[in-house]
Structure formats: C-alpha cells, structure tokens
Amino acid sequence: MMHVYLLPLGDNRYDLYCEMKEPTNLVDTDASPSVFARWRKDFVEMVRAAEPDQPEAEIVDPSESLTGFSRWIRNLRSHLVRWIAASIAEQRLLWNLRRQTEVMLVYPKDLEAQTARETMRGLLQHDASRHRRWLVIDVLALMTALLFSIIPGPNVIAYYFSFRVIGHYLSIRGARQGLVNIKWLLETSEPLVNLRHALKIDSNHRQELIREIAVQLGLKRLPAFFERTAVRSQR
C-alpha cells in the first residue's frame, strides 16, 4: 500500500510527501499511437534519465571534440535533466496517485484526524488548480516551441515544454484520483511531531534531527525534500 506523509513545514504549513520503492510508472496501457503518445514516450525517457536512483543517462568523454553549438546543446540538456530531477521529486506523489485506490495517510500524532484529512484534501485541490493553470500556459508555449522544429538539431525548448505539459496533465489526474476515488486510511506518527519543531532549532542540530526522523520513517530522500521546501522558504 502506498503511504503518503503529511509533513509539517512550520506554523500551519503542510505538504504531502511519498517515496515509492518502484520506479514511477508513467505509461498508460490505453495510450493511443498519437502525437500525444509520442510526447509521453519522450517524457518517460526523460524521467528515467533523471530519476535519482537511476544511473547517469549519458557519460561524455571530456576529450571529445565538440563544436561550440553542440557543446551548448549538450550543456543545456544536462541542465534540463537536473531540472527534471528536481521536478520529479515535487510531482512524483501526484503521478503515483493516478493508479491507487487505497492509500495510507500518515500524519503528526498531535493533529486531529479530521484536520489531517481536510488538510490533505486542501493540498490536493490546490495542486489540481495550480497544474490546470500551468497546463494551459505550457500548452501554448509548446505550440510556439514546435515552430522551431524546422531548425536542424534537437529542439531542446520543445522537450522542456513537452515535459511540463505531460507532467501537469499527469499531476491533474493524480490529484483528481486522490480527491474522488481513493479510499484514505489514517495513521498517526510521533516522528512527524518532532519534524514540526525542526525549523525552531539551529542548522546543525536540525539536519541531525531530520536525518534521524528520515531513518525512523524509512524515507531516505526526506532531508533533501525538507531542506528544499521548508528551510529555504524561511530564508
């Protein structure tokens, strides 16, 4: 069963988080051989290349002779893959919710069950609205980027916006699944109570505390996620 954690990120701030043991499944069996399906295939390949647990997708010999333009394209693609890796961490939960029917919501023990459920639904509703808004914007941007497909060489701009379009689409589906179809079971967690106070202590002790909480919960990527979403937003 998939476990989703309601992480306290400060005073009255929460976020949903999960880690899946298996790679994110992004292929639908009913996908038709359309342009959209081809975009999705390219999207899946980019995700696999950028997954944190996957080996590097490309190893380049530093002695390899590249023209200035080719080197620029290669560097741009490397930056794109790193950006995708960060984006995957933020959207993985919604993507995986698409295929779930029953999910365990783990929430801080000092929080009322009804409050935890309402907070979870509020976060999913906010995500659905945000991704719908950006889907419209990025579809228009992708259509513009496709005009550059007549230029020889890889259309990095189109790859970028195709990733965003497919990512927003899958996120909307995941959020809707969580709001409408998933049966949510609830479980309290004492370590999440300790996480609530992490922002109130100095940096060194905070990092040590978060690592301990990550071990207790079996969430190896939690420290990096917490640093990115909670700590940096306080600066």
Task: Write structural notes for this entry.
- The protein is built from seven helices and four strands; from the N terminus they run ββααβααβααα.
- The protein is of the alpha/beta class and 235 residues long.
- It has a domain at 2-23 and 89-140 and 170-230.
- Strands 2-1-3-4 form a four-stranded mixed sheet.
- The longest helix is centred in the middle third of the chain and has 33 residues, at 113-145.
- The protein is globular, with a radius of gyration of 20 Å.
- The protein starts with a strand and ends with a helix.
- 25% of the residues are buried.
- Mean pLDDT is 80; it is low at 54-65.
Q: Give the helix/strand class.
A: alpha/beta
Low-confidence stretches: 54-65
Give the CA-based shape.
Answer: globular
The tally of beta strands, per DSSP, is: 4
**Run of helices and strands:** EEHHEHHEHHH
Termini separation comes to 36 Å
The residue-averaged pLDDT reads 80
Radius of gyration based on Cα positions: 20 Å
Helix content: 55-70%
User: Which strand-content bin applies to the residues?
Assistant: 5-15%
Helices, by number, come to 7
Largest β-sheet summary: 4 strands, mixed
